[in-house]
Amino acid sequence: MTCTVHGQKHTGGLQQQKGAISGTESWIVRSDDPFNDREPQVLAALGVSEGDLHPDAFYGNRGVTCRGVMPNRDGERHLGLWVVNLNWGNGAESKQEKERRLIPNPLERPPTIEGIIVRETKPALKDSEDRAYENTAGDPLEMTEEVERDQIRVRANLPIVPAWYGALRRTKNKDPIYISDPIRAVFPEGTVRFIPMGFSNQRTENDIEFVEVNFVLDTNLDGWDLEIANKGFNMLRTADDRSTKEPITVKGMPIQQAHWLNPSGLLTTTPTYIERKPFAEADYDPIQEILDRA
């Protein structure tokens, strides 16, 4: 089997900032035995290993060394094409570079976890004393409130894209979720929903194949069940055991604001609410296993 370097892909190249030089070069390597080629043969053709000085004297004389070698298959496997990304630099070692050096197996590296605060405005149904927003005549008021919640963004290396990655879409946790560093929080059952955010192509590092999966854990300490004001412009009228829907009118004219309805669809002055459960409960054990690796 023979692997041949076919040239360099156009990239941003190496850049100099505040005296430090860093950047990534991408090289195309082609194998004549695409179903049996492996990372060692591909890297041998390129002839660059981590720690090597840059072959260009301009960079080599300035201490620019290879900080990372990442070979990845490019396109269909039968083409035998690989793209090898070489990270170069002469500045301080980054956290990611140090992690790759200390943990050569990409599947053993801890996931990356980041917490952010999301702010949004939503209709306000009740005040802090659980009273409905109404004027003194009992008409509903259009009120909004700003709410905050935490989103936890997770990036992890896995052998393949797991089946649960798609199956957990539009679900919420049926058991508490514990998130260690850097969040250090426990989220009760029913307060976390899973949002898949995409995954990488298959990658190879140190002859180990993996994919990088990304997802968001969207939290809501009030729970994800909805409580909707039972209001409307129509009401139900029952006669002869049959119910028909008819517009609500005042002095023969259609109403301009929605009125409260009772559970039977009739007019009422007492606020009532409809509960909806948009997310099914699911077992989040696979997610907890990833979080426990942090």
Can you offer a commentary on this structure?
By secondary structure, the protein is mostly beta strands. It has three domains: 93 residues, no CATH class; 125 residues, no CATH class; 40 residues, no CATH class. Helix content is 11%, strand content 47%. It is built from five helices and 21 strands. The strands form eight sheets. Strands 5, 6, 10, 11 and 12 form a five-stranded antiparallel β-sheet that branches. The longest helix has 8 residues. 16% of the residues are buried. The model has no long low-confidence stretch (mean pLDDT 87).
Secondary-structure map with pairings?
Blueprint lengths: L2 E15 L2 E12 L7 H8 L10 H4 L4 E9 L7 E9 L5 H8 L9 E13 L18 E16 L5 H4 L3 E3 L3 E3 L5 E3 L4 E8 L3 E3 L2 E12 L6 E4 L1 E2 L1 E6 L2 E6 L1 E2 L2 E2 L4 E2 L12 E4 L3 E3 L2 H7 L3
Parallel strand pairs: 7-21
Antiparallel strand pairs: 1-2, 2-4, 3-4, 5-6, 6-12, 8-9, 10-12, 11-12, 13-20, 14-19, 15-16, 17-18
Q: What would the principal axes of the Cα set say about the shape?
A: elongated
Helix count from the secondary structure assignment: 5
**Percent in helix:** 10-25%
**Could you say how many structural domains there are in total?**
3
C-alpha end-to-end distance: 40 Å
Poorly predicted regions:
none
Average pLDDT confidence is: 87
Strand content: over 45%
Number of strands: 21
Radius of gyration: 29 Å
Largest sheet descriptor: 5 strands, antiparallel
Structural class label: mainly beta
Which sequence of SSEs, written as H and E, runs from N to C?
Answer: EEHHEEHEEHEEEEEEEEEEEEEEEH
